[in-house]
Amino acid sequence: MPDLCLLHANCQGEALALLLNAHAPFSRLFRLKHYINYTRETLLPSDLQNCRLFLYQKLDANFGDLASNVLLKRLPKTCQTIQIPNLFFKGYWPFWMRAPERIDFADSVLERLIDIGLPMQEILRIYLSGSHPAFKTVAKIAQESLAQEKAKEKDCPIGCVHLLLQFWREEPLFYTVNHPGPRLIIAVAERLLQLLGLPPLSPACKANFVHPDRDFFLPIHPLVGQALGLNFTGPKVSYEIFGKRLTHAEFIASYLACRKEHVTNLAAFLHGRSKAAS
Known about the structure:
The chain has helices spanning 12-22, 24-29, 45-50, 68-74, 108-116, 120-129, 138-152, 161-167, 182-195, 203-207, 222-228, 248-260, 266-277, and strands at 3-9, 30-36, 51-56, 80-83, 96-97, 106-107, 174-176, 179-180, 238-241, 244-247. With 278 residues, it is an alpha/beta fold. It has two domains: 3-84 and 178-207, Rossmann fold; 96-141 and 218-277, no CATH class. The strands form four sheets. A four-stranded parallel beta sheet has the order 2-1-3-4. Strands 5-6 form a two-stranded antiparallel ribbon. The chain is elongated, with a radius of gyration of 20 Å. The N and C termini lie far apart (46 Å). The model has no long low-confidence stretch (mean pLDDT 95).
């Protein structure tokens, strides 16, 4: 029977697990169980005791009993442990901010304009025209985000910054700020397999990989794309959002409609609109 492998990771773990489970040399050795870290899902003591491979995104002391340093001490001495990256990139979405009390995937510029009390149509006009001063900071934010990812690699045996630096202007490497796309997830899986002494993913495995986050691509502001020299953005470019294609302007109109209705779950709001339109 395969040994137990615990994967303690956020939503990025789902995509990684799909690749690992599809890789015969890995699945012959390990039975993978994914614990979602950001929901603070409790790990069963029996799973920790029986674990032979522990894959984890590092969590600090704020997570209490789920902090990585705490969990690592509870594992058997024979258990192999490997830290995996928690990938994040604001370059494509420089105005993203964490504000779940307002809306998920919040945009700081839109939220400032809403706070001022401007009419929604005026907010839309200002935002799409790029006349807000925040648009002057786009390049700086992208470089700061790249530097942050590079700094995180110091403690992790698996790195993707070299791919970010090489491809981020040529192709979309993320679906949202914390949902890396196929190229990065495949790179993480292959480096992990290398650390385990296993063969790389087969061409068929990579070709058949269906990313679980592919149905929601957070649209990129055309003026952000223009400022950064991105090859895949523009006002006419449409993005996959729950089975429907939306341009950036159409997405922002939906964002403002969501805020007007005081709905905090933007993803559910968009999903509902997509279903209604079908």
